[in-house]
Design a protein that fits this description.
It comes from Ceraceosorus guamensis. This protein is 37% helix and 6% strand. The protein has 6 helices and 3 strands. Strands 2-1-3 form a 3-stranded antiparallel sheet. Helix 2 packs across helix 5.
């Protein structure tokens, strides 16, 4: 029970962070759902579309109503919306917001067909997706190859 309460506090704090304050897909404010395996926060409408794609693509939970396992918490904590979109929207024009009437086809294109995704599988350490990658911009080239 104490762990569940701690997880709930962590999730509530995460959705208050600027990058997680809006739905990862439609950009509406105050997402209350998450895809824990994709590591992103969703509004209720987009969460329904994620559910309809199947759990082999997106595993959806409520940030308010569901109990989260340690594995699920670890995934959402290392990703977040910014890193998720750095991967899934790598080849999409920055700032793109899909029109309301196209949101389902946008989400399916984004995750099912990987239309704008970065090449290769999602990284096991998503911090490599942060601006400039894992190595600081000033790092000597030799550090990049160790």
């Amino acid at each position: 029970k104490a762990q569940n309460e701690a997880n709930a506090r962590t999730l509530r704090a995460m959705v208050k962070q600027p990058d997680n304050k809006s739905c990862v897909d439609c950009k509406k404010n105050d997402p209350r759902w998450a895809s824990w395996n994709l590591g992103c926060f969703l509004c209720i409408r987009c969460s329904g579309i994620h559910r309809s794609m199947g759990t082999h693509i997106s595993k959806v939970k409520s940030i308010d109503l569901d109990i989260w396992t340690p594995e699920q918490m670890a995934s959402i904590q290392k990703w977040g919306n910014k890193r998720a979109n750095a991967y899934w929207e790598a080849h999409l024009k920055a700032g793109h917001v899909p029109p309301d009437h196209k949101i389902e086809s946008f989400i399916r294109s984004k995750y099912e067909t990987r239309r704008w995704a970065k090449e290769g599988a999602p990284p096991s350490d998503p911090s490599v997706l942060d601006e400039g990658g894992a190595a600081p911009a000033s790092a000597p080239v030799s550090l990049l190859w160790q």
